[in-house]
Design goal:
The chain is mainly α. It is 68% helix and 2% strand. The protein has 20 helices and two strands. Helix 12 packs parallel to helix 14. The radius of gyration is 25 Å and the shape is globular.
Length: 493
């Protein structure tokens, strides 16, 4: 492969990265000027930044909340942009970022579990707990892909599986322990509210150290942009270079999660914008992607501050997702991976000699599970087993739920089979392609705008709007089926 082939395709909106980043910072600075002017006159900003007057509440508020919030937004955005650029270079995938590897969800799960079962460990600092959770998620992904020599596509897919499992587990813990985890749930959505300079002081050295380490690895990381065979011929140890670079990116991302929660799409959109603006070489993206991420997060946070105070509960993480998802829809068709990411050739399982045995065993197991669901119950005296005789007592109450569960499972299985058959992708499923989330979003919008509606209207809302857009987008994305699955996962509502 020639050097020209290794570069991303040119786009029709190309400009110098400095122009794009200048526009982002100019828009954010204009909104910041409007925000700060409501607190203090312009000539008082610099003195308040360095030495506020203790007896002036406005100066103390600006010094300990407004300025630290801007600093944390810039540092967190730059850190996520750097981590995203490294992950995309190592995995040769324009959709890769630490979130794709399950790091953010792993860190969030670790914080939730510690809050429930070992709250005394929070005295050590939640940043260390988040780091442990992030690295634990990465080690799970690492173990799942070790036999495949850390194949880029397999690594991303394993990261999605681990991240999804961590997210579902966290949601279950929050639902079961709402009173204890509601504060963590709100914070985990990505809030940039600050009360002092401690978070900025925590992020700044970690970003600088990570940037210096990545800058020292520019040559091996540049070679990772080529295919594996070319990189090996040039004397690069692929596994060691990937693990080292991904370790730095994961540590940086976990540090951000520990401070401000989960901020989606910044690590994905920042490097993508840098590429589209003309940063073709990794050396250039190493500079422009952090700046682009910083400008994006700063601008998103200033847009959140435009919301009236009574409705300002929207976290910055939700704002970055609302801005990043449409931007990804616009940018993705213009992007091409810096090198072929490869394709997963599904292995066709051998035909069973006696499939009827498996079918009979499955039916017997299903009947046994239904029997358990109808006969086992919990009451004032604890769990009880009613057996065959007591099923009639519970049948009127439980059979609708059992039948609904059977029908829902069978329907999803049929839908997954049809999608996998039509797309030729063994990973295709309604939830992976964003159809389930889009349908839920359509029903929520309908219930919010209209009074209680009949079932047929809810079905109509679920089958149109976001779910249709998700399906259309997943089918329109070019590239291997595995990359389509990753993309659909990221843009799900």
């Amino acid at each position: 492969m020639s050097k020209v082939d290794a570069l991303p395709a040119r786009s029709g909106i190309e400009m110098h990265p400095a122009i794009l980043i200048g526009l982002l910072f100019a828009a954010a600075a204009a909104l910041t000027f409007r925000h700060l002017s409501g607190y203090l006159p312009v000539n008082a900003w610099l003195p308040v930044l360095w030495r506020p007057e203790i007896d002036d509440p406005q100066q103390m508020l600006v010094h300990y909340t407004v300025f630290p919030r801007i600093a944390v937004a810039l540092l967190a955005g730059a850190a996520l942009g750097l981590a995203g650029a490294v992950c995309q270079q190592v995995l040769r995938n324009p959709l890769a970022e630490p979130t794709t590897l399950g790091v953010s969800n792993g860190a969030y799960l670790a914080l939730a579990m510690t809050t429930l079962w070992a709250p005394s460990l929070l005295a050590l600092g939640r940043e260390w707990i988040a780091l442990v959770g992030g690295f634990a998620a990465f080690l799970c992904v690492f173990g799942l892909t070790w036999k495949r020599a850390l194949s880029p596509v397999v690594l991303v897919l394993a990261g999605l599986i681990v991240g999804y499992y961590c997210a579902v587990t966290t949601q279950a813990l929050v639902l079961l322990n709402h009173d204890y985890l509601i504060g963590l749930f709100i914070w985990g959505a990505g809030y940039l509210n600050q009360q002092d300079w401690s978070n900025a002081a925590f992020l700044a050295p970690r970003f600088l150290i990570s940037f210096a380490l990545i800058a020292a690895m520019v040559r091996p990381l540049t070679l990772l942009g080529f295919d594996d065979e070319t990189a090996r011929n040039l004397g690069l140890g692929l596994t060691g270079a990937r693990v080292c670079a991904l370790g730095i990116a994961i540590a940086l991302s976990a540090s951000v999660v520990s401070v401000v929660g989960v901020l989606g799409f910044v690590g994905l959109t920042g490097p993508a914008l840098a590429i589209l603006a003309g940063a073709r070489r990794f050396r250039d993206r190493l500079i422009w992607a952090p700046l682009c991420g910083a400008g994006l997060l700063w601008l998103a946070d200033e847009l959140v501050l435009l919301i009236p105070p009574g409705y300002r509960e929207m976290p910055a993480g939700a704002a970055t997702a609302l801005i990043g998802a449409p931007m990804l829809l616009v940018l993705l068709p213009r992007l091409r991976s810096a090198a072929p990411v490869g394709n997963l050739t599904p292995s066709v399982p051998p035909r069973l000699d006696h499939p009827w045995r498996v079918i009979l065993f499955g039916l017997a197991l299903l009947l046994f599970v239904v029997w358990i669901a109808l006969a086992v119950g919990v009451g004032a005296e604890g769990w009880s087993w009613s057996g065959l005789a007591g099923i009639q007592e519970f049948l009127p109450w439980r059979w609708p739920r059992v039948v609904s569960a059977l029908a829902a499972g069978a329907t999803l299985a049929v839908a997954g089979t049809l999608l996998q058959r039509m797309t030729g992708n063994p990973m295709a499923a309604p939830e992976v392609m964003g159809i389930s989330y889009g349908a839920a979003m359509g029903v929520i919008v309908l219930l919010y705008l209209l009074p209680p509606t009949p079932a047929w209207r809810r079905l109509q809302a679920a089958g149109s709007g976001p779910s249709s857009c998700s399906g259309w987008f997943c089918c329109s994305v070019g590239g291997p089926n595995s990359v389509r699955s990753v993309c659909c996962w990221l843009v799900s509502p």
